[in-house]
Amino acid sequence: MIVFPNAKINIGLNVVEKRPDGFHNIESIFYPVKELFDVLEIVEATVLKFTSSGIAIPGNHDDNLCLKAYRLIKTDFDVASIHIHLHKVIPIGAGLGGGSADAAFTLKALNQLFELNLTEEQLIVYARKLGSDCAFFIKNTPVYAFGKGDEFEPIDLDLSKFNIKIEYPNIHVGTAEAYAGVKPKPSSKSLKDLIKLPIENWKNSIKNDFEASIFLNHLQIKVLKEKFYNEGAIYASMTGSGSAVFGIFEK
Known about the structure:
Helices cover 27% and strands 29% of the residues. It is α+β, with helices and mostly antiparallel strands. The protein has two domains: 2-154, Ribosomal Protein S5, domain 2; 162-250, GHMP kinase, C-terminal domain (Alpha-Beta Plaits). β5 (49-54), α1 (65-74) and β6 form a beta-alpha-beta unit. The protein is globular, with a radius of gyration of 18 Å.
């Protein structure tokens, strides 16, 4: 079985408060970008195996989220061993959600491959155990994200008449670095309301709280955003905690 885990972008990101558990509450708009995707193949095998190609995946393969997704399913279902091959295209550490998408699509593929008959809501419960935004990729539709970024409300947002251009400056911005430069504060106006404005108004109303400090540390990312506006983007922003930047253009 072959599936195609896609990227996402964050349109706006407000860090609202620090939680007692050390995490942060945020609000953001998650929007799937299905034109940018990894390739994930899963077949039954005699022993559990993970291989990869494309962009090199750092760290121990045993810690890969695809394997963690399989082991999570294996705790509740007597599924056969599998060979997972991941061809990595979505840049790593870019704020595009590639790893989370791989994990969520593994869950969905296993559900189909082994005919587990899990509902989307049941798959979301599994996905939440793997990472904050993994659950988004189960339904893979535009949402208003809040809490730790793992609670969602569906929104009516369709950007299909626009071109979304994404560039990755080959800079890895760690989560710790991103949050170190942010002072959490409640938003004066909810992104749920701001996203309803005409897209021409987003530039002056929808912000990413991570940009200010990250632009100071990584000027290339700021320059990339400015380049998009110089090229005629209606709206441009760093996605998530970076470092990829996207621009929304008229077709």
